[in-house]
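Translate sequence into structure tokens.
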Amino acid sequence: MADMLPPRLAAVAAQVPRDAVLVDVGTDHAQLPVNLVASGRVRQAVAVDVAEGPLAAARAASARFRDQIDVRQSDGLRAVRPGEATCIVIAGMGGLTVAKILTEGAVVCAAAKRVVVQPQGMEAEVRAVLLAMGWGCVYGELVQDRRHIYVVESWEPHGATKAWTSDDLRWGKLIREGQDPLYAAWLERKLANVTQGIERMKDAGQSHHPDAQRLRQQERRLRSERATCRQ
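Result follows.
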């Protein structure tokens, strides 16, 4: 049933271990837990969301699996007990929000065997929190879904075995080392966005503004990283 998921969620689903007890944070319509339970990949799932609208949709979507999918209202992991989940998924949120959920739910995370994250930007903040918690990245990939390229990473609490550089934090150690097929295209898109920002500030007569200087620094780093990509 993974082919019923959009590519972004299919990539996340592939990182959920078989027979896991899943907690899906920000479940929205419970598409991920319903798919994984219906396919027999996981035994039990907890679908949590903070807003009542998505929760109502999740309850309706998971009604035929009510013995296996528990839908709860929760701000992050607050309504999840330590040891209740073996795999935690936090997908489709901004990186700062993901980092906040991980930090506030550190006790729940510590009792799990895997965390799968799919942040929408600000990935470095998510990685920094997980590394500080003593977790190691065991899988990383870039996924094309319509016009966007997303980061999907799996982390486990065995500890990081190698030091991460600032560029590893920014772009993903495994993604960089493995030269993900989408890596060059991903960098190109980021570079285009930064270049547009520089041009806009130039047109506004703000070329010497500190923000413009920061953008030029980002541009240099992106060009340098792009040059390391295999053609």
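Note: The domain at 2-159 is CATH 3.40.50.150 (Rossmann fold).
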